[in-house]
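Course exercise 7: structure representation. Students receive a sequence record and must write out the corresponding structure in token form. The form below is the worked example handed out in class, using Serine hydrolase domain-containing protein (482 residues). Read each field label carefully; the graders check that inputs and outputs are placed in the correct fields and that the protein name is recorded exactly as given.

STUDENT ID: A-19
EXERCISE PROTEIN: Serine hydrolase domain-containing protein
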Amino acid sequence: MSTDRSTHPHDEPHGDPRSASDADAPTRTRAADPATARHLHHLLASEQRRGRVPSVAAGIVRDGSLVWADAVGAVDGRAGGVAADTDTQYRMGSITKTFVAVAVMRLRDAGRLDLGDRFEDHVAGSRLGGATVAQLLSHGGGVQAETNGPWWERTPGGTWDELAESPVGQRFRAGRRFHYTNVGFAALGELVARSHGVDWFEVVRRDLLDPLGMTRTTTRPSGKAAPGLAVHPFADVLLPEPEHDAGAMAPAGQLWTTVEDLARWAAFAGGDTAEVLSPDSLAEMFEPHTVNDNPGQPWTVAHGLGWQVWNVEGRRYAGHGGSMPGFLAGLRVEVESGDGVLVLANSTSGLGATLAPELLTACVEREPRTPETWHAGGDATVLGALDLVGTWHWGPAVSTARLVGGHLVLGEPGQARGSRFARVGPDEWVGLDGYYTGEPLVVVRAADGSPSHLDLASFRFTRTPYDPAADVPGGLDDGGWR
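STUDENT ANSWER:
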């Protein structure tokens, strides 16, 4: 499936590594321009040297395809050692949580649980019962961060019953605040296992990895794999990190993967879900639930349902970071465009947190997307609602209604209470954005069939300010405007 690019991985930028004959492969995207590939290689190589990282591999995904991939360094960190490539396995750490989360959402979509269910409703006998499934997914359940035993990331793990009886519990009232918890995802892995009657990874492999063609994502290293290494902070020497089965804690960070496999997961996050999850459910997972708030610092990071979400200068990103002793990883996808980046390294520390976004920004800036060609939209939704466009007034405030992409747009989405509305009936619409998300808009017509006013979540929009013919709630002063 993969090609060894260890000799000069940056000399030939490539597109989707899967076979062109693969019927399930997304539309092939042009590989990154050679000049872009050289620049991205320079950024990757510079970070590898600056951070003294034994090896690092990375990729860029656009339109569902891997358009650039590269690797720098030797997997053992030594000159002349085996060069890393895009089929080298690395431990992804907490990116594992996104797979567990999708497995949970599939249970919800199948009607087998509700996100508002208490954990106790599905897995009895722990001290986590007060937290809901949604709170565990978003790190809002107040559950303790780590286990009560030895450093779980460096010691073999036990069973769920042993973990629950240790005992693990809550540090804060459920719903009070963000508190990152590895234990919470161990709990969700147990929930997935009990719901299906098989190990959590068997569910992930069967329902997620196999349909997406991710054959190089495993719970333990397989084939060509980088060893976990620690680099001495004051000397150029290495210390191997232990590798083991984390047992009940495995759903928090056990999985190993390659650039080529994780690129398929980035494409999934970018919208190419291959019917593994509905687009609506994926979008729901990206909605921020709990804010990662550090006192004294502006916040830009939150957690959705199993995914980290970032707001960078108004642009939304989703993904996750990952770290385990000997490994660092990152996955980030721009939600609107689907452009994604992934980075994998075998070092306990040293890799800069800005490398992934820098690689993605550099690629997008050097190769901006060509705007889609404008075409007239004359479908039934547009033609049947032309009498709604133009100026409307909420009291004295002025709003403009337009028809764009089959939606009625009132005001400017993202500004004040501007929103798009989808048609759900002859004169019924529902809000898609901001304040009016999910709220009803009803067109009230005069006797002659012309629009009299818009009733939007009880607010009255009229063609003229406080139109007396529109039955404005509260009535109008008898003296009128003066």
